[in-house]
Design brief:
There is one protein chain. It contains nine helices and 27 strands. With 389 residues, the protein is an alpha+beta fold. It has two domains: 10-212 and 309-384, no CATH class; 215-306, Elongation Factor Tu (Ef-tu), domain 3 (Beta Barrel). 24% of the residues lie in helices and 39% in strands. Strands 15, 16, 17, 18, 19, 20, 21 and 22 form an eight-stranded antiparallel β-sheet that branches.
Length: 389
């Protein structure tokens, strides 16, 4: 499944303002290589996307030390995006220089038990502090990194949206390759579970937050008739065992249902006039279906089908060049998109497009955009040079 050669040391991405580099996650000197390449002395923040092939606790501690005085945030990944496109077994580092970025980091240490009002108040304070510190910088956004196995993303993004107000929010759920066992976020030298980080950003660069997918709804609909919303589990569809009915609608034997089936044949829900993907994570031995995002009884699901992934990606990223080529595109790409690309033998073509548009980031277990937790999307922020530069 590896899609690029492991680089010696650390390789720098192509950048003018936003700095990026990547290094082999299995190299014990990877963090030092990345620090040497990024030159963190004038960086406000470093963002790390770390392959599960790494010792993530050791990486968190070393990065806290080696990237000082820059602060470090990050998360585990389900694959990485670097200057070569799709890759694996890497640590991708993104550096935001103080000359152009002012950031605040808020950690939510226990997603089972946090104070919603305090969270909102802290976000408002952070935004006001940055406005006083950099009154002439007009661009704002907020980035969320969240443990991808806690099943709290839907509720959390709704709460965060009340705190960030008109500021666009984007982010992703930390991954663990294709194992779905342990996911982490990194802050203050510690790899944390059941936690989330919100990075508020203010910059003199122009930015554009985006969210897109290549899926089209079909006419095939179904109704969830039995579910456990707290665990994102569907027991019944159309009053039949969930996996059996899903397989029947696809014309498949339930024994043929795999992760690749779910990636290629997602379901969508219609909310506010738009369709949003509700990806199926896995089938349980008893025939239940486990979803990546919120699900409940009575929800009408529509089978979706893929459009041309290559053309869609190229078209969308080309639109981001309307105001000039981005200096960098920080992206959260659903792991199911990567799986579909590999299954369809499109990963090489997609990698070339990602590299062409300076995309860096990771494959996720879900994405967040404003108040929504979504699946099977490409979500992120395009960062452009300041006007006049």
């Amino acid at each position: 499944m590896e899609l690029s050669r492991d680089p010696p040391g650390a390789l720098a991405g192509v950048y003018d303002i936003v700095r990026s580099a990547f290094a082999d996650a299995r190299d014990p000197h990877a963090v030092q290589h990345l620090a040497d390449t990024l030159c963190p002395q004038d960086l406000d923040l470093v963002i790390l996307f770390v392959s599960p092939a790494a010792d993530i606790r050791a990486i968190a501690a070393m990065a806290h030390e080696r990237f000082a005085p820059a602060r470090v945030v990050g998360c585990s990944s389900a694959g990485e995006l670097c200057s070569q496109g799709y890759t694996e077994n890497q640590i991708v580092a993104v550096g935001l220089p103080r000359e152009h970025f002012c950031t605040r980091v808020m950690v939510i240490e226990d997603l089972d038990n946090y104070d919603q009002q305090e969270l909102i108040s802290e976000l408002i304070r952070g935004r006001n502090d940055m406005a006083r510190e950099t009154p002439d910088w007009m661009s704002e956004c907020a980035m969320l990194l969240v443990d991808g196995l806690t099943m709290h993303e839907d509720e959390l993004t709704a709460h965060l949206s009340m705190g960030v107000g008109p500021v666009p929010l984007f982010g992703g759920s930390a991954g663990d390759g294709d194992r779905f066992e342990q996911t982490y976020v990194l802050w203050d030298g510690v790899a944390r579970q059941n936690a989330a980080l919100v990075v508020q950003m203010r910059t003199d660069c122009e930015i554009e937050v985006f969210n897109t997918d290549h899926l089209l709804p079909t006419e095939q609909r179904m109704v969830v008739t039995g579910a456990d919303p707290a665990r994102r589990v569907v027991h019944e569809i159309n009053a039949e065992p969930a996996a059996l009915e899903y397989a029947r609608l696809l014309g498949k034997d339930p024994a043929q249902l795999t992760t690749f089936t779910f990636a290629a044949h997602p379901v969508v829900v219609r909310i506010g006039g738009q369709h949003h993907v509700r990806s199926i994570q896995r089938m349980e031995p008893n025939g239940d279906l486990v979803f990546f995002s919120a699900i409940d009884e009575g929800v009408v699901l529509t089978l979706a089908e893929s459009s041309d992934m290559v053309a869609h990606l190229n078209n969308h990223l080309s639109k981001l060049t309307a105001k000039g080529k981005p200096d960098a595109v920080l992206a959260f790409d659903c792991v199911f998109r990567r799986m579909e690309a590999e299954q369809m033998q499109l990963a090489g073509q997609l990698s070339n497009i990602l590299a062409q548009y300076n995309v860096v980031g990771l494959s996720t277990y879900g994405e967040q955009i404003n108040a929504r937790h979504v699946n099977q999307t490409l979500t992120g922020v395009a960062i452009y040079p300041p006007k006049g530069r």
